[in-house]
């Protein structure tokens, strides 16, 4: 059953209203900005841990709460929650998160990066298309759902994708089609990596039983190096 968790430590404006999120700042007090986009489970401890891990690498990481505090560990319920989030509502929240980070004095970069998983991987591409040159690095992990844009023409930043060859939710043929379409429509630098793994291989909460520690580390190291190179 879905549960509502307390909102975490920051708020930002969205279309005249207020949204919530989890903000992780490096010990130095400043660093390049990165938006972390949740899976269909909600803003879980795993996603907060991703933000904390980015902060440990020197980034200021914001994970917006797209479900308003609701989380679940049930796959059917997660699918229902994802389906009830309109793409335009998610896009508006991410636009607000983008402006919040750009205005945050802890953020030292002129551009932002974004990384997301599952549903969040789809919204990573939507955010990059929406924000143009503001997003200099976009990293979708096995992106699915309503956030996946129909057109990638607006993407100007570099894209690094991470997809499983045995992903039953987003078959590798679909991921390869996405990579080709992105390269053709945007002209942006884009490279997808394909792993001998299933969906959510990076999620160490292992809710789907597909977590692969070795491949997760490889994908993570590639992602951090990419963010360091592109987000300035």
UniProtKB/TrEMBL annotation:
The keyword Hydrolase applies. Keywords: Hydrolase. The keyword Hydrolase applies. Residues 21-229 form the Dienelactone hydrolase domain. It comes from Candidatus Nesterenkonia stercoripullorum. This is Dienelactone hydrolase family protein. GO terms for molecular function: hydrolase activity. InterPro entries: AB_hydrolase_fold, Dienelactn_hydro, Dienelactone_hydrolase-like. It holds the Pfam family DLH. It comes from the Bacteria.
């Amino acid at each position: 059953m879905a549960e509502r968790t307390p909102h975490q430590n920051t708020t930002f404006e969205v279309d005249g209203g207020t949204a919530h999120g989890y903000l992780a700042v490096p010990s130095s007090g400043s660093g390049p900005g990165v938006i972390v986009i949740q899976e269909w489970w909600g803003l879980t401890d795993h996603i907060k841990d991703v933000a904390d891990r980015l902060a440990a690498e020197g980034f200021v990481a914001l994970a917006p709460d797209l479900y308003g505090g609701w989380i679940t560990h049930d796959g059917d319920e997660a699918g229902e929650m994802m389906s009830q989030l309109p793409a335009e509502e998610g896009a508006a929240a991410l636009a607000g998160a983008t402006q919040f980070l750009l205005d945050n004095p802890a953020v030292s970069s002129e551009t932002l990066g974004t990384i997301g998983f599952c549903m969040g991987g789809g919204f990573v591409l939507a955010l990059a298309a929406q924000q143009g040159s503001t997003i200099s690095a976009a990293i979708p992990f096995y992106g699915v759902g309503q956030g996946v844009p129909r057109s990638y023409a607006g993407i100007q930043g570099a894209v690094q994708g991470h997809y499983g060859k045995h992903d039953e939710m987003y078959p590798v043929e679909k991921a390869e089609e996405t990579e080709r379409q992105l390269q053709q429509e945007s002209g942006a630098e884009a490279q997808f990596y394909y792993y001998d793994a299933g969906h959510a291989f990076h999620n160490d909460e292992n809710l789907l039983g597909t977590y692969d520690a070795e491949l997760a580390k490889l994908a993570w190291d590639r992602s951090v190096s990419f963010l360091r190179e592109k987000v300035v």
